[in-house]
């Protein structure tokens, strides 16, 4: 139902002897006698010249032909208007926010009503916000992490402003260490090793020296902030120089990379991204550690 009042106007002259309003073949008013049982329908008369029909709260079922029929001494005459009811678009069903693993097939739903039937369009609200498929269902085969985000469903039919709803899609994927920074530190100074990973859910971090898992102590501090971790060696000694391993894990997988603490003058490139390695013992230790936490 639409909150609109409609007036269908009909004007007559003083030569008219009989007058009536009809909807299709149904009589609504004959003269001033109301035949319709619909309380929304009323007659509007201004003196003897106007014989108009008013419909409150117009409904889609009111669509159709309306006829003002008059009888004069010479001949009957009719004047007809066809009422077309247009309805603004309304989205009445949209998919809930979802969390899926990378590689899954995803179907997003957006159902809308309106007259004329609304057109459904989809967009992924990333920086480019490019248009996607048109239709009630958006199919994504083998979703990847770049397709995560906020999806916009828009229903339009040019009757009114479009109706818009949103679906948030989270894509889980295993960790990937995207940046490490080694440290060139003199003896007696604090050495800081950096490690940053990308993962959903957020990764957990561990640090290793050779085959020994490190934990915070007086000489070593492990700091974790979101997707980044730091290994701080407070007072570097000759024994501290060497290869360290940063391990990032979540329930979908594991990734590790080598980071180096080395003496000044050795010529190592401290801006290199680090050597990514996959050692069997390190993977096994990390998996066992994750199992022990469960």
Task: Give the arrangement of secondary structure elements.
Elements: E1 6-8, E2 16-23, E3 26-30, E4 33-34, E5 41-44, E6 52-55, E7 64-72, E8 76-83, E9 87-94, E10 98-101, E11 106-115, E12 119-124, E13 131-134, E14 137-140, E15 149-156, E16 163-181, E17 183-184, E18 191-200, E19 204-209, E20 212-213, E21 220-225, E22 228-233, E23 242-250, E24 253-262, H1 280-293
Parallel strand pairs: 10-16, 17-24
Antiparallel strand pairs: 1-6, 2-3, 2-7, 3-4, 5-6, 7-8, 9-11, 11-14, 12-13, 12-15, 15-16, 16-18, 18-22, 19-20, 19-23, 21-22, 23-24
Keywords: Disulfide bond, Glycoprotein, Immunoglobulin domain, Repeat, Signal
Family: Belongs to the immunoglobulin superfamily. IgLON family.
Protein name: Ig-like domain-containing protein
Characteristic key phrases:
294 residues; mainly beta; eight-stranded mixed beta sheet; five-stranded antiparallel beta sheet; 1 helix; 5% helix; disordered C terminus
Structure description:
The protein is mainly beta and 294 residues long. The chain is built from 1 helix and 24 strands. The protein has one helix at residues 280-293, and strands spanning 6-8, 16-23, 26-30, 33-34, 41-44, 52-55, 64-72, 76-83, 87-94, 98-101, 106-115, 119-124, 131-134, 137-140, 149-156, 163-181, 183-184, 191-200, 204-209, 212-213, 220-225, 228-233, 242-250, 253-262. The strands form 5 sheets. Strands 10, 12, 13, 15, 16, 18, 21 and 22 form an 8-stranded mixed β-sheet that branches. It has a 5-stranded antiparallel β-sheet with strand order 4-3-2-7-8, with no helix packed on it. The two termini are 56 Å apart.
């Amino acid at each position: 139902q639409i909150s609109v009042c409609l007036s269908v106007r009909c004007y007559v002259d003083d030569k008219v002897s009989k007058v009536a309003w009809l909807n299709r073949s149904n009589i609504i008013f004959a003269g001033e006698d109301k035949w319709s049982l619909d309380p929304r329908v009323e007659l509007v008369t201004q003196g003897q010249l106007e014989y108009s029909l008013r419909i409150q709260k117009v409904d889609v079922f009111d669509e159709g032909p309306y006829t003002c029929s008059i009888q004069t001494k010479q001949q009957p005459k009719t004047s007809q208007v066809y009422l077309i009811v247009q309805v603004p678009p309304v989205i009445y069903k949209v998919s809930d926010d979802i969390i899926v693993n990378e590689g899954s097939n995803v179907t997003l739903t957006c159902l809308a009503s309106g007259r004329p039937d609304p057109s459904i369009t989809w967009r992924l609200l990333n920086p480019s916000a490019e248009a996607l498929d048109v239709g009630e269902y958006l199919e994504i085969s083998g979703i990847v992490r770049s397709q995560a985000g906020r999806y916009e469903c828009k229903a339009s039919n040019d009757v009114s402003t479009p109706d818009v709803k949103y679906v948030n899609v989270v894509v889980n994927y295993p960790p990937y260490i995207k940046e490490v920074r080694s440290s060139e530190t003199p003896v007696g100074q604090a050495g800081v090793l950096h490690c940053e990973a990308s993962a959903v859910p957020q990764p957990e971090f561990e640090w290793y020296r050779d085959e020994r898992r490190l934990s915070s102590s007086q000489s070593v501090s492990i700091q974790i902030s979101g997707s980044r971790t730091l290994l701080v060696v407070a007072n570097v000694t000759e024994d501290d120089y060497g290869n360290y391993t940063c391990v990032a894990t979540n329930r979908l997988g594991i990734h590790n990379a080598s980071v180096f603490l080395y003496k000044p003058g050795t010529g190592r490139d401290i801006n290199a991204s680090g050597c990514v390695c996959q050692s069997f013992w390190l993977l096994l230790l990390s998996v066992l550690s994750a199992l022990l936490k469960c």
